[in-house]
Amino acid sequence: MFSQLKEALLPSIIGIMLHKREKLTRKEMAAMQDYNARLKVINRKTKDQVVIALVGLIGSGKSSVSEELSRHIGATIIEGDEIRVELRRQNESYEKTRALAEQVADRVLRQGGNVILDSDFIDAKKRASLREKLKKIPGVKLHFLCAYCDLDVQVGRIISAKYDQDPIGFFSGARSLWSGDPKIKPAIVKLREMMRRIPLHYRWVNKAGGKWEIKNPPCKVLADIDTTNEKEWKMEVGEVVKKLLG
Q1: Less packed terminus of the chain by CB within 10 Å, N or C?
Q2: Taking residues 131-150, what's their average pLDDT?
């Protein structure tokens, strides 16, 4: 009951306490402009405009789900990590990544497109901020979508990916200290970030030697998609597509 009340009231509080005071620096504006310049707005296939915001840990399959969903409903994917890369190029902090993503989404929506936000909306304030911003665009429907998978699979995805083939990726350019092979540094940084955020998505259960169990989503979601098995998760995305296309 408290969580539902929080989800309902927090957007207005965020609007008053944060949005009215939020200003972008010159470098943040430049980063957003550069990102916008590269972003292609996809023609939507749904009758109503929709925004899909992902909830999921690093390696959970958010990007794969986003791409599959975008292909079927016609949606422009806005990636938080790509915005961070643009901020890094401007030698600016990542503090306003959320604000920039919201402004880019606003531009796409006002051009009539759908939006998929490929970022983790596990944080209540982040969800509230998005809800408050979308109030200004009539008719847009917001849905949250949860992506998850077996933790061993997530770790495997991270350590087996060829990040050296992505020299401008967010984790490829991380400034974190690393004394080993530079080619695997991005995977190490990404794995560290995944470990840091595990408690937000999983709870530790002391039975059978102990294990991490996935928590219920922190908000109402359109679907929980288990990406462990590729064939099965694509079928689950297909069911989501049916709901959105009506």
Answers
A1: N
A2: 96
